[in-house]
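Predicting holo structure, 2-phosphoglycolic acid bound.
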Amino acid sequence: MLVIVKNDYEEMSKEAAQIVADRLHKKPNLVLGLATGSTPLGLYKELIRMHKEEGLDFSKVTTFNLDEYVGLPPGHDQSYHYFMHENFFKHINIPDGSVNIPDGLVSDIDAFCDWYEEEIRKAGGIDLQILGIGSNGHIAFNEPGSSLGSRTRVKTLTEKTRQDNARFFKSPHEVPKYAITMGIGTIMDAKEQILLANDANKADAVKAAVEGPLTGQCPASVIQLHRKTFVIVTKDAAVKLSGSYPGTWKSSFMLEQ
Ligand code: PGA
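Done. Tokens:
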């Protein structure tokens, strides 16, 4: 794990975008795992800028999103289909057929989840997975108590997560109760990961993930077992960390090995 502490949200986002762009230059048909939420918006904005101004090419990329709410149609303004289209896909040159997001309306959820896992396998596995972290330590919608070996499946959202996400909905009652989410085992199969956190309200979760015990009570702590995870956080989100950590991945290249 390489923990990188940046001054602010913009620096955090640019650092992550540089890693994505580097991997994309090395492998044009990169398989990218993507996340929703407010945290990765700056990363997507910077990748869009790189696409428009520097010709960063997504034409051969395949993407897999982490999760989707059960019951929300793709056109609902809080569905993750809508979020990804509005905030990323419609601004870059990725073919529609190369985008994969769990289907929250599917009738046979178990069969769908098996199919999603198979699609990831058929694509050769995820090369680089982007992750946010919940204030309760969740990754994707793997809530505290999730099995560390879990695969894509339906999960019940905790009250904490529903409260955290209520800010995006007209009323807290509208926040769905269930989601389809990649499992922790699915996420851990990614060859590389970037976990992002910028807000002070994530400081406890970041501390638990990076320096706490490995436990299903903090699903993000599983990154301690991963071979190659970049944890890119702002000073605000890093405030409870006790280790001393570098400022960029390039200057820390040797540390990473
Ligand atoms: P946020 O959500 O980026 O909106 O804070 C992150 C998460 O819950 O994983």
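The radius of gyration is 17 Å.
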